[in-house]
């Protein structure tokens, strides 16, 4: 079949981009959980035409030929796909380092044994909290005990125990207990990533946004644990962007490292690129991955710094933060090419400060953990089923 290039950019004299390092294969948006901070698109249920096994195999081969070496199987819940083992085996044949990013739901002993046999390198298991009550509330499922069983299976099958817990105002006060739970389950690595506000988390931002005091208290607890446990478990604490005064170099630079493929074959320069206007995102069903990566308008839109406006254009820090996050700029400033409003130099920083001030007025979540803050009238919204 002829491959037609979608959204092709005008020929440019710019040097070719480096090869993508990391392929994120979002196998499906289907998921048994309904997390209040899910980063999947709000209208994910409109995506029904998932790539077939053969199409995914082709994507993996093309990505490897382009130079990608790290492969994440993600979603949704990738275990919903019953061809996962076949894709893992192909990834192993191609020489990828493969990582399964999972809620644990569906990871039975039969499947973990098959995934091991197929050559899966790494499993990252998510928890929502250290308590059953809050874990189950935030995911709108009864999955806490099941996740603990899966954690034991992961150890039993000799995988490095890598856990992830998304933090927000409800569970930040539990951070010490979350670390205790991770240690009890034998975690060697725990990612404590504060919610970033995209997708469903953006919908629930007033509900989830912590106070500055909560973030600082949690940071202190993590520092104390680091000192106490040393190398036994590596603790990564990611501060919410809103509490920084300089933005992150999102995706390590647009079109530099990260190549995502959505369940329907749409190629993504970042997880949330579907929500940005005017990108004309290409699809692996219509174009080769090499053409998408090198030539498509979407992947070239924010490469380099030609697209930057002031204050980024003349900023002496632009090589470090690359202007920050395009999705955050669009959501908070209404312009994807604006400086990330998280930056203190952005003329839109007041939007971030307004949200932080609201969170401070709303107070902390209290010891019960999930009592909605009094100042927030709207109930928390859970990702709904397709
Ligand atoms: Fe899209 Fe940051 S999440 S550029």
Automatic annotation (TrEMBL):
Gene3D superfamilies hit by this protein: Aldolase class I
Domain named Radical SAM core: residues: 17-232
Pathway info: Cofactor biosynthesis; pyrroloquinoline quinone biosynthesis
Enzyme class: oxidoreductase
InterPro entries: 4Fe4S-binding_SPASM_dom, Aldolase_TIM, Elp3/MiaA/NifB-like_rSAM, PQQ_synth_PqqE_bac, PqqE-like, Radical_SAM_PqqE_MftC-like, rSAM, rSAM_sf
EC numbers: 1.21.98.4
Any one Gene Ontology BP term: pyrroloquinoline quinone biosynthetic process
SUPFAM superfamilies the UniProt entry points to: Radical SAM enzymes (SSF102114)
GO molecular function (one): 4 iron, 4 sulfur cluster binding
Keywords, in A-Z order: 4Fe-4S, Iron, Iron-sulfur, Metal-binding, Oxidoreductase, PQQ biosynthesis, S-adenosyl-L-methionine
PANTHER family attached to this UniProt entry: PQQA PEPTIDE CYCLASE (PTHR11228:SF7), RADICAL SAM DOMAIN PROTEIN (PTHR11228)
Subunit structure and binding partners: Interacts with PqqD. The interaction is necessary for activity of PqqE.
Similarity comment: family membership: Belongs to the radical SAM superfamily. PqqE family.
Function: Catalyzes the cross-linking of a glutamate residue and a tyrosine residue in the PqqA protein as part of the biosynthesis of pyrroloquinoline quinone (PQQ).
Listed name of the protein: PqqA peptide cyclase
Naturally occurring in which organism (per UniProt): Massilia forsythiae
Source lineage: Bacteria, Pseudomonadati, Pseudomonadota, Betaproteobacteria, Burkholderiales
Originating gene: pqqE
């Amino acid at each position: 079949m002829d491959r037609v290039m979608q959204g092709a950019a005008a020929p440019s004299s710019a040097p070719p981009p480096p090869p993508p390092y990391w392929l994120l294969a979002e196998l499906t948006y289907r998921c048994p959980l309904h997390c209040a901070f899910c980063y999947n698109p709000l209208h994910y249920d409109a995506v029904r035409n998932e790539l077939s096994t053969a199409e995914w195999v082709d994507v993996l081969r093309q990505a490897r030929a382009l130079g990608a070496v790290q492969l994440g199987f993600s979603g949704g819940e990738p275990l919903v796909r019953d061809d996962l083992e076949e894709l893992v085996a192909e990834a192993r044949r191609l020489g990828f380092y493969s990582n399964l990013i999972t809620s644990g739901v569906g990871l039975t002993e039969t499947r973990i044994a098959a995934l091991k046999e197929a050559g899966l390198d790494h499993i990252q298991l998510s928890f929502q909290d250290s308590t059953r009550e809050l874990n189950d509330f935030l995911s709108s499922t009864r999955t806490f005990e099941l996740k603990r069983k899966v954690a034991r299976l992961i150890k039993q099958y000799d995988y490095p125990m890598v856990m992830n817990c998304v933090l927000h105002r409800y569970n930040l006060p539990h951070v010490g207990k979350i670390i205790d739970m991770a240690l009890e389950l034998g975690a060697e690595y725990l990612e404590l990533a504060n919610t970033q506000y995209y997708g469903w988390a953006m919908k629930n931002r007033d509900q989830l946004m912590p106070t500055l005091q909560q973030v600082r208290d949690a940071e202190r607890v993590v520092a104390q644990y680091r000192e106490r446990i040393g190398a036994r478990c590596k603790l990564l604490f990611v501060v919410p962007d809103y509490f920084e005064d300089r933005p992150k170099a999102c995706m390590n630079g647009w079109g530099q490292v990260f190549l995502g493929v959505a369940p329907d074959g749409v190629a993504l320069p970042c997880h949330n690129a579907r929500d940005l206007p005017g990108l004309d995102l290409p699809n692996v069903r219509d174009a080769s991955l090499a053409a998408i990566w090198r030539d498509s308008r979407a992947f070239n839109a924010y490469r380099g710094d030609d697209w930057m406006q002031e204050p980024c254009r003349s900023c002496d820090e632009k090589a470090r933060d690359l202007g920050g996050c395009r999705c955050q700029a669009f959501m908070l400033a209404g312009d994807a090419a604006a400086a990330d409003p998280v930056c203190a130099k952005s003329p839109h920083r007041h939007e971030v400060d307004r949200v932080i001030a609201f969170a401070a007025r709303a107070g902390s979540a209290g010891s019960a953990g999930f009592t909605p803050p009094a100042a927030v009238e709207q109930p928390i919204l859970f990702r709904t089923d397709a």
